Amino acid sequence: MNKTVEKIKQLAEAGDFSGNSVEEIFARCYKAVEKTLGITPFDEQLSAALALNDGKMVQMQTGEGKTLCAVFAACAHALNGGYTHVLTFNDYLAHRDCEWMKPVYEEMGVSVGCITEETPRDERKSLYQKQVVYITAKEAGFDYLKDFVCYETEEMCFPKPDFAIFDEADSILIDEARIPLVIAGDVAVHEDESTAKVYAKIGEFADGDYEFDEDSRNIYLTDNGADKAEKLFSVENIYGEKNAGLLAKITACIKARDILKEDKDYIVRDGKIVLIDEFTGRAAAGRVFPGELQPACEAKHNLKITSRGRIMGNIALQYFARLYPKISGMTGTAESSREEFEKIYGILTEVIPTRLPCARVDRPLEIYFDKTEKRKAIIAAVSEAFEKKRPVLVGTESIEESESLAADLRKIGVDCKVLNAKNNFEEAGIIAKAGERGAVTISTNMAGRGVDIKLGGEDCSDKEFVESVGGLLVIITSMRESSRIAQQLRGRAGRQGDVGESRFFAALDDEIMIKNDLRRLCGRHFPSAKVEGAITDKAVLREAERVQRISEGDGFDERVNLMKYTLIGEKHREMTFSKRNALLDGEYDSDLWQKNAPELFEKACGKFGENAVQTLENKVLAALLNEFHSDYLDYTAYLREGIHLTQIAGRNPADEYNIACEEYYESAAESLPERMCEKLETLLKCDKIEDYVIEKPTGIYTYLLNDLAEEFKAKPILLNVFSEEDFAEENSAKSEKTEEKGEKQGFFKKLFGKK
Ligand code: ADP
Ligand code: MG
Fold first, then answer.
1. Which of 42, 77, 476, 550 has the most CB atoms in a 10 Å sphere around its CB?
2. How far apart are CA 398 and CA 383, in angstroms?
């Protein structure tokens, strides 16, 4: 046994633990757990807690008691003067875990609190001052962003990040890592009719003039379409640098006309386009379509553009995590992502063995000829278990799949419950009952994570019966990009040495198999005619397993590649945010007025008093930095649309992107003095300093931008079109026949034309 664990238990036994060494604090905590919760921490839990305290990623199976492990590490940190955020998978778990562990913290003299989406803003500041806070990464990230649009330090609430313990860490740090949290505000804009003018002309574009690319969700003009655009708008080369804005407007208008559907993607309310959140199906006030798409959509409905939502700040969860100087995490599935945790977050993974041997039987992958055959096999497996009253948990890929499977099952009299991750409080209650006699629960991977499934119901009263029919049966309906997902689902059965079983289904025509060309991998082994029942050819099974490894590797590479595009934005955000904070904190005073308009400044001081002018100057600059940052975000979004990449033949697009961002940031920063001086002139026109109005957004909204994640996901597809030969081809094409539309060929064609 681990020597430190042994020592902790000795100290606890002897009651010898008044100091603040990790061992002593852990020993005290050990006793506090016994006293308050009436359970004795297992050795495995102490080992895991030590690893968390060391800033590691801990792999510990579902049901082994990770919630308790975090308490030890958080207490050790608190009693040494630090602040810990335990970042949970959802609000339900933040609330549950905080309430559950509160007695231990109280006994330890450590303050603890919980923040959920429901927590009012004015209570948050004091909650954040607790030594330990249970909160989702999403809520914490939003609070971080909201501080960026505050104008008084008293309104700010997010503390300096210190130590984060991520629960269900792989989900946040890998699966959702790229999802940006966004803060947007309604700001006044000057009316601009240019998009409406473009929209009025796109009636000319019909089938054959453009194509829609499913992967990148973008519209591309065909050669025909490009010719048409050049005629309609009287430009020489629509792909030329100076027409990039026009091209973006044209494709956005076509997309608004053909792809975006009223009442499905958005509604029109009070003269405004209001997006519908694909996940909740609710109207999402304040959320805007990216780039040119929003004005294009307004043009489609003849709406007046008076104010519009502007993105004021964003941060991907991955970068939010990296704000904490110390992070650690725990999950049932860390081992297979060891490399990623180390490379991206710089943390090592430690695997904690299960306390009791695992009695779950994991059946190998079963592969079927097509989705129909697969569905038949899944239904047979569920109904067989249902007849025996054996509980079944089915993990599907999507809400739609869950619903169609449930419909099929109900047709044959199998009663089932469907979870779709819409209400995690309600669903926790359903998942907790998934181990009851005869329960059939269908869920996506998202729903119910973190909630214990006890055999024979929450009180285990019927455990013997459920054990007699084999325990919980987990059915996984398809292979996902990462093997972790299946591993997580399998882990729902066989908790703490329980009996259980898991089955894993796939079909030859599942998307992942097609995407990775299983047919080619299998060669002659690929069935040429329909096969009834499971495919037994070992070669096919072996290649299907290979698909899993390929897609896992691709996913990782893709994420690393994306970082080349996102790091720069993070650097700039950090620079702008910290400058703004320093201004409002009084750590730093703006001297832009003094330096650039000394006479006007003197005049203002004479009129309003120097202190008042300086305070206002700081706030005006803070507000200007918000504008500056919004412009920056607009610009980088525009860059990522790839239009500017047309310029960069022969060079690495990621480097070029970074250079372009850097240049923009610097040149925009150079315009700050002038913009500040304009404001000083406005101030001088006021009678009283209070009359000067700092333009602030009239409403603030936060949301998760799934679209942007999609956009980022599509990026490597765009990048891959830039092969060395393309650059060479393009360069020679340029020098030889510049007057020809050579640019439409070569990589431009690949970028904007057909894929
Ligand atoms: P995990 O997060 O690892 O899936 P939980 O923290 O939700 O696991 O705990 C699973 C179950 O194990 C809970 O019902 C909890 O009460 C129980 N448990 C945890 N630690 C102990 C312990 N030391 N002794 C007895 N039961 C424990
Ligand atoms: Mg848990």
1. 476
2. 21
What is the distance in A from the centroid of ligand 2 to the CA of 170?
Answer: 12
pLDDT score for 291: 66
Mutate to test the pocket of ligand 1, among 8, 37, 60, 68 (most ligand atoms within 8 A of CB): 68
Cα–Cα dist 458/689, whole Å: 64
Alpha-carbon distance of 469 to 1, in angstroms, equals 36
Rounded CA separation 527/644 (Å):
46
Per residue, what are the HEC states of 593-622? Answer: HHHHCHHHHHHHHHHHCHHHHHHHHHHHHH
Q: What is the pLDDT of residue 609?
A: 94
**Helix or strand (DSSP H, E) at 256:** helix 244-258
Q: Which ligand is nearest to the CA of 63?
A: 1
Measured CA to CA, the distance from residue 196 to residue 60 in angstroms comes to: 57
The top-scoring range by mean pLDDT among 96-110, 270-284, 302-316, 471-485 is 96-110
Against a cut of 0.85, is the pTM above it?
no
Q: Which residues line ligand 1 (CB under 6 A)?
A: 39-42, 45, 60, 62-68, 452
Domains annotated for the chain, with CATH where assigned, are 2-178+317-351 (3.40.50.300), 194-308 (3.90.1440.10), 359-544 (3.40.50.300), 592-647+654-752 (no CATH)
460-518 pLDDT, tens per residue? 999 999 999 999 999 999 998 889 989 999 999 999 999 999 999 999 999 999 999 99
pLDDT band at 310 (very low <50, low <70, confident <90, very high): confident
Q: Would the pLDDT of 725 be above 60?
A: no
Closest residue by Cα to atom 23, ligand 1, is 41
Residue 97 C-alpha to ligand 2 middle, in angstroms?
A: 9
Report the run of H or E that residue 502 belongs to, with start and end: strand 499-507
Q: Give the whole-angstrom CA distance, residue 267 versus residue 286.
A: 12
- The most confident of the ranges 307-321, 322-336, 444-458 is 322-336
Q: Which helix (H) or strand (E) holds 425?
A: helix 424-432
- Mutate which of 62, 64, 449 for ligand 1? The one with the most ligand atoms within 8 Å of its CB, which is 64
